[in-house]
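Researcher: Can you fold this with magnesium ion in place?
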Amino acid sequence: MTDIATIAARLDAAARDARAIQQITGQEGELALSDAYDIQRAVIDHRLARGAALVGVKMGFTSEAKMVQMGLKDQIWGRLTSDMVVQNGGVLDRARFIHPRVEPEVAVRLKAPLTGEVTYEEALAAVEAVAPALEIIDSRYENFRFALGDVVADNASSSAFVVGAWLPADTDVADVPMVMSVDGAVVETGTSAAILGDPIRSLVAAARLAGAAGLTLQPSWTVMLGGATAAAAIGLARAVSLDAGHLGRVGFTVA
Ligand code: 0L1
Ligand code: MG
């Protein structure tokens, strides 16, 4: 039987101490997806017990390329907590992370609860605002190596996020050009259409997957809808920015 509490404590400590641990799968055998999500919830419970608040969810493996790479047919999701927020233009403390990478994304803020099987129109109607965003992922596993169960248990690698200025909900997010730069040099270019063909489809999936776990996406929550390009290593970079066309810009410095 999988020891949910022990593995969750190990992952929580790895994140707190910025110290990589070995993959769970392999050590403990395979990890069922339902157990992996139970571990994820237990990891987040540690943070909530320290005073953090749940402020949203993130979607992962939202591009065809990443799904094919992992041999997956569905997305994964993770939880966003208040201690993961970095202000737009703010400073990311490099010492808090093991081997961070950054992804250009689209975020939405909700104005109505959303859960279960919803239509595209219902998902869109629950959106209060949209924004360009950057997600910092930082696998808690050595060498950023994991199987599906590992990464789900590890909160889908999520570790911090930065959201730009919020725009009205009717702002088109379907095919936004994305140009991500590190220290002033362009490192990734793409389009928001890489996020399931349209990021709002990722919100539909977020409602479905969270609903299956008994969670309702709440008004005021942020949903990070997925990466529009491959992630870039932060390494020794000092500044990261995203130019997301008519959605505007978002960025942070690294200290
Ligand atoms: O946000 C993402 O799409 C990443 C999901 C987790 C997999 C990874 O760490 O690359
Ligand atoms: Mg992401």
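Model: Folded with magnesium ion in place. The pocket of hexanedioic acid (ligand 1) is lined by residues 60-61, 103, 135, 137, 139, 151, 156-157, 226-227 (CB under 6 Å).
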